[in-house]
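Weekly modeling sync, notes
Attendees: S.R. (lead), two postdocs, one rotation student

Agenda item 3: backlog of single-chain predictions. S.R. asked that every request posted to the team notebook include the full sequence so nobody has to chase files. The rotation student volunteered to paste the first one in as an example of the format we agreed on. Action items at the bottom.

Example entry:
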Amino acid sequence: MPRRDAVLVLTGAPGAGKTTVAGLLTLRRERAVHIESDAFFRFIAKGYVDPWRPEAHEQNTTVMQILGDAAVRYARAGYWTIIDGIVIPGWFLEPLRDLIGSAGFDVAYAVLRPPLSVAAERAAHRGSDPLARRGVVEQLWNSFSDMGPLESHVIELTERQTPDEMARIVAERLERGTLTL
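Predicted structure, as returned to the notebook:
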């Protein structure tokens, strides 16, 4: 398992399996916290902007700062902490990493990347959730298609892998330290 003080940022497009895998990973630890970033966006009662729109940048920055603060507080209390959300490099990964790192915690970053067709099919089961729309899934999936220097943090998934297998792969990569930023 990861170092006690590492915070895992588990990301990928809608339908990648982030929430399921994060839930399974937390079951492997005695003290663990699963922070779902979607919940932090739902806290906005008025003035909400769909996070994938360019005009949402200020809102998204605020949400990510609050989410990072929460992660640090849990980690300080001795909980292994997983942040589950769409954390795209060049937008929010770096500020989130810097916030958590400045508090003295290592940050691990794992990108779950199933085929686009698999992510779109899974997301479609979310009903009226805007993240279920094929165009939104495709836009966000493309954000993770070329990770440049962070490609080593990608976990390529197949349509046949079970959530348990995906969680095992993430846990093994954490153990080896290959996901630490």
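Discussion: group reviewed the output briefly. The radius of gyration is 15 Å.
Action items: rotation student to repeat for the remaining queue; S.R. to check formatting next week.
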